[in-house]
Amino acid sequence: GEPCYILAVETSCDETAVSVVKNGTEVLSNLISSQIETHKAFGGVVPEVASRKHVESITYMLDEAMQASGITPRELSAVAVTQGPGLVGALLVGIVAAKSAAMAFGKPLIGTHHIAGHIYANQLEHDIVYPCIALVVSGGHTELVLMESEGQFQLIGRTRDDAVGEAYDKVARAIGFPYPGGPHVDRVAHESEEVVTLPRAWLEPDSYDFSFSGLKSAVLNVINQTKMRGETVQAGAIARGFQESVVEVLVEKAIRAMREYRAKQLLLCGGVAANQGLRTALRERCEREGIELLVPSMKYCTDNAAMIGAAAYAKWKRGEFTSLDMKADPGLYL
Ligand code: KG4
Ligand code: ZN
Question: Does the complex come out with an ipTM higher than 0.95?
């Protein structure tokens, strides 16, 4: 049939992103403007500041992404945008821009779930085979999602408190790294010969839920006690202990879900999929168990719009379009 070209917009947090994706797999253009430098001064993402920054760059980026794609607005099949979850003010900027583009070009709108986007990031480089399990790990999310077929999402586990990335960033801050600290913790964890043993939160034996706030508190206690004794904080040993605890629980629960649901593939996605400790542990474990593991390249792990284009394509194929009076939904259900 006719090729499908989707113009996709993502502004749920601190990256303004616009992309044009062909047939849900071929990325024709992929622009990302990160606000990390702006938010660094505050030690985290400030919602109001995020919205303003999105407003400053979105129009220009829409234009750039179309130019770089080599296709004309006439050729577009649809305009997709992240509807939620995320920061409501940030989401609104992308939604207004996408609606305007859809109206101006006379194209249908496709509201997309941010996590569906992270999961479908895998489709940009691999073929997803169902049933599959997605382990979504980012600054805002920690979820195990079962997909029995395309476009079907069943949340089988989620964090009951902090998201993994959030816990990484808080621990990083406590041991003195700038925001976002996840990559720093990852690095020093690898360099350290020493390890501080920390607890693992398994929760109920059959639960696929996660909890990281206890672990985070344990880290803060170790740091405080060390300081009270007048000793130097062993950042590497703490980072390594924290990472080992996080990785062990994530890997164990993901593998158990793979077995229980007889899934054919394990999809790792979200910003924390960049974590070397997690990637290595999952790769080794999957190899041993004969499980096929999909991991998107780094640029598709962190927030981007190409993943939204890939997720929207699945909806486009089913003719699932979204009304132009659609609203941002910060707590959107998958
Ligand atoms: O998916 P993402 O870009 O944004 C959200 O949707 O949240 O994820 C960002 C998160 C941050 O918390 C960051 O610290 C974490 O991913 N992160 C890492 C690593 N790289 C990024 N955490 C641990 N190890 C890493 N290498
Ligand atoms: Zn994300």
Answer: yes
Distance 5 CA to ligand 1 centre (A): 29
Instruction: Indicate if 151 and 276 belong to the same structural domain.
Output: yes
Q: Is 54 annotated as a binding residue?
A: no
Statement to judge: residues 286 and 137 lie in one domain: yes
Q: Are 272 and 186 in contact (CB under 8 A)?
A: no
Q: Are 246 and 164 in contact (CB under 8 A)?
A: yes
Residues 81 and 147 in one domain: no
Q: Residue 53's pLDDT is what? A: 87
Beta carbon of 14 within 6 Å of any ligand 1 atom: no
Ligand found nearest the CA of 50 = 1
Number of domains in the chain: 2
Across the 334 residues of the chain, what is the mean pLDDT of every consecutive 10-residue run?
95 94 98 83 81 92 98 98 95 98 98 96 97 96 96 96 96 93 97 96 97 96 95 95 98 98 97 95 98 95 96 97 95 84
The verdict on residue 52 lying in a domain is yes
49: CATH: 3.30.420.40
Indicate the helix (H) or strand (E) that contains 80.
strand 78-84
Long-range Cβ pairs for the range 31-37 (8 Å, 24+):
31/61, 31/64, 31/65, 31/68, 31/305, 32/299, 32/303, 32/304, 32/305, 33/57, 33/61, 36/179, 36/180
**Domain span including residue 233:** 129-295
Which atom of ligand 1 lies at the shortest distance from residue 186's CA?
24
Phi and psi at residue 36, to the nearest 5°: -50, -45
Q: Which pLDDT value is given to residue 41?
A: 77
Distance, CA 142 to ligand 1 centroid (Å)? 11
- Residues 112, 218, single domain; the answer is no
Neighbours of ion ligand 2 (CB under 5 A): 138, 303
The model's pTM = 0.94
169 is in an annotated binding site: yes
Residue with tokens 């010969």: 193
Pocket test for ligand 1, best of 13, 164, 166, 168 (most atoms within 8 A of CB): 168
